[in-house]
Amino acid sequence: QKEVEQNSGPLSVPEGAIASLNCTYSDRGSQSFFWYRQYSGKSPELIMFIYSNGDKEDGRFTAQLNKASQYVSLLIRDSQPSDSATYLCAVKVAGNQFYFGTGTSLTVIP
Amino acid sequence: KAGVTQTPRYLIKTRGQQVTLSCSPISGHRSVSWYQQTPGQGLQFLFEYFSETQRNKGNFPGRFSGRQFSNSRSEMNVSTLELGDSALYLCASSLARESSSYEQYFGPGTRLTVT
User: Fold this and answer.
1) How far is the C-alpha of A55 from the C-alpha of A72, rounded, in Å?
2) Is A92 within 8 Å of chain B by CB?
3) pLDDT below 50 — which residues of chain B?
4) Positions in chain A short of pLDDT 50
5) Residue of B68, B97, B102 to mutate when probing chain A, most A C-beta within 10 A
6) Cα radius of gyration (chain B)
């Protein structure tokens, strides 16, 4: 079983809609959770992090964490074509080691 | 504040050769991690250095090695290159202090092609 699992997609949403990206993890000792955006040919860019149960909002982005269900999600409101990218979920376990999911490809259709 | 820098950006090597990649973290960041990214495997953790010591190591063969200098700059070395080593090698830095959430910031990567 992989430490971090994401639906690879592709996920397509119309411009202005809400995109919902999901991630599950296996290590109950996981401490911090991160979402990265990666455009084709570029390196990952950190967009959100969360380490407490509940929601965390930053502009059009909301990260949601449920440690009991070992589930973290990212909502993108008012999706824009520039949001089209691969979104990587990352989990930090003890000792500053990170595990990444394989990413979900998002396409926002104008 | 300048971001994470990596050199070189592109490399073409032949099987059997060795290669050294360099990473300079964000100023003040003491932790440097290295990752290999391929289309099939995604981002895979190689190792992490903190204060010149390797703290964590991923599941890669001994041909992959690294080190960190006193100024937090890091290098990774791959010896006896194989075709399967062709990948994007990413370096990420973080503060890695107890009071922080340990978020990592990535450099632009080094694209290694082995022929």
Assistant:
1) 10
2) yes
3) none
4) none
5) B102
6) 14
